[in-house]
Specification:
Bound molecules: arginine
Strand content: under 5%
Shape: elongated
CATH superfamily of the largest domain: Fumarase/aspartase (Central domain)
CATH class of the largest domain: Mainly Alpha
Number of strands: 6
Oligomer: single chain
Number of domains: 3
Distance between the termini: 68 Å
CATH architecture of the largest domain: Up-down Bundle
Strand order of the largest sheet: 1-2
Length: 464
């Protein structure tokens, strides 16, 4: 005689109990319980729709919503008992509901499958995480704008190839970071349009024979519309891949900021002082102050890009429709959202306390012949061809190097040996201040231009 395993999900079909290891191996409750509140929210909306369509009675709906609300509280207070035997968050909640309210609990799953249920939960979860991420980006952007405002006139070297190139203002450099975050927010908002689509009603894959109203469920849950194809609804995870792609770009940007902060706080650059509260010491070297926060953020960018790769690989060979493979989407997604929120938060908290060492920035720009292009442009304006001007300036730089002077410190007669076009007014262009002030077109580094860019950015931020 065969014994029927009474605990097993869909038990009547099975003659054997699940292997003990397989039970643990296939369970997801340890991590997907994180979506419990979304699961309950989705279930209440589903049951409300079923009642409105005459599939559940009002009494059954009341019992279901009352029970689910109690379960939501039990989960928040920590008294809810999660069981691996119930495999995942969905089955754990449904089993508890049936314990609490009896037969009505067993009716909740009418016209639904865990396949459309889990897809709905993930979308609800991501929708709220996207909001938190967006809030943190805005905090960071505000901090950057405030710092840029303080440093609209602070001169520093701008780099190409990490060699001093031309003078810029620190405010202008900060605004480059701001712009990257503007695009990150746009991408996040665009991605959320595709996240906010409702799969419920797709059931296992083919839809349901009950007379359901999917638009009603979508409205109840704040989704923009029901999904258009039942097979696609239960199998699609490209919205999640897109989210991790957007997240990877955000982390790539934070990693670049980090790299600059790390370089600039080194004794070799010495451009900035990182706030003590965001650094740590060394256990052996008493003089050390390490920029741990930017280093960790730079390191964490790798794990988010890793999650993007995981999800792409997870999807690439799956036939339609739902496959158990998709259970593997949760951990990379959760970790992507957590990492983004934590890194952005650390940055938004840290940036207001960053102090710039203005004199060091200024002297470094001066040491690097940063106004060489300005001298060439000056000669071109006086009628010389650019390539010839390039040559003349090369000679002037050589003299500067030999005598350890910046171009602005070389005497007029000395400069005139290289070209008779050079006159006293050249010094207006050779100073760092003159160089930055001249770049006053849209997107330029002139202090007044930077100030107006900051003002425009503040208005745009407030309008979003
Ligand atoms: N735990 C599953 C997941 O995360 C829920 C859906 C299970 N569906 C199924 N047909 N086994 O994907």
């Amino acid at each position: 005689m065969t014994t029927v395993n009474s605990e097993k999900l869909s038990s009547a079909r099975f003659a054997q109990a699940t292997d003990a290891f397989v039970e643990v191996f296939t369970a997801s409750v340890d991590f997907d319980r994180r979506m419990a509140q979304q699961d309950i929210q989705g279930s209440i909306a589903h049951a409300t729709m079923l009642m409105n369509c005459g599939i559940l009675t009002e009494g059954e709906l009341d019992a279901i919503s009352g029970g689910l609300k109690q379960i939501a509280e039990e989960i928040i207070s920590g008294e809810f008992v999660w069981s691996i035997k119930q495999e995942d968050v969905h089955m754990n909640i449904e089993a508890r509901l049936t314990d609490l309210i009896g037969i009505a609990g067993k009716k909740l799953h009418t016209g639904r499958s865990r396949n459309d249920q889990v897809a709905t939960d993930i979308r609800l979860y991501l929708r709220s995480e996207i909001k938190h991420i967006d809030d943190q980006i805005m905090r960071l952007q505000t901090a950057i704008l405030d710092l840029a405002e303080q440093h609209a006139d602070t001169i520093m070297p701008g780099f190409t190839h990490l060699q001093v190139a031309q003078p810029i203002t620190f405010g202008h450099h900060l605004m480059a970071w701001f712009e990257m975050l503007v695009r990150d927010r746009e991408r996040l908002q665009d991605c959320s349009k595709r996240v906010n689509i409702m799969p419920l009603g797709a059931a296992a894959l083919a839809g349901t024979s009950y007379p359901i109203n999917r638009s009603m469920t979508a409205d109840l849950l704040g989704f923009s519309r029901p999904s258009a194809n039942s097979l696609d609804s239960v199998s699609d995870r490209d919205f999640a891949i897109e989210f991790t792609a957007v997240g990877s770009l955000i982390m790539m940007h934070l990693s670049r900021f980090s790299e600059e902060l790390i370089l600039w706080s080194s004794a070799q650059f010495d451009f900035i002082e990182m706030p003590d509260a965001f650094c740590t010491g060394s256990s052996i070297m008493p003089q050390k102050k390490n920029p741990d926060v930017p280093e960790l953020v730079r390191g964490k960018s790798g794990r988010v890009t890793g999650h993007l790769m995981s999800l792409l690989m997870l999807m690439k060979s799956q036939p339609l429709a739902y496959n158990k493979d998709n259970q593997e989407d949760k951990e990379p997604l959760f970790d992507t959202a957590d990492t983004l929120i934590n890194c952005l938060r650390a940055y938004a908290d840290m940036i207001p306390h960053l102090s710039a060492k203005k004199a060091n920035m200024y002297n470094s720009a001066k040491r690097g012949f940063a106004t060489a292009t300005d001298l060439a442009d000056y000669l071109v304006r006086k009628g010389m061809a650019f390539r010839d001007a390039h040559e003349v300036v090369g000679l002037a730089v050589r003299l500067g190097l030999k005598s350890n002077r910046d171009l602005s410190e070389i005497l007029l007669p000395e400069l005139q040996q290289f070209s008779s076009l050079i006159t006293e007014d050249v010094f207006d262009f050779l100073t760092l201040e003159g160089s930055v002030a001249a770049r006053k077109h849209i997107g330029g580094t002139a202090p007044d231009t930077v100030r107006s860019a900051i003002q425009t950015a503040r208005q745009a931020l407030a309008a979003l």
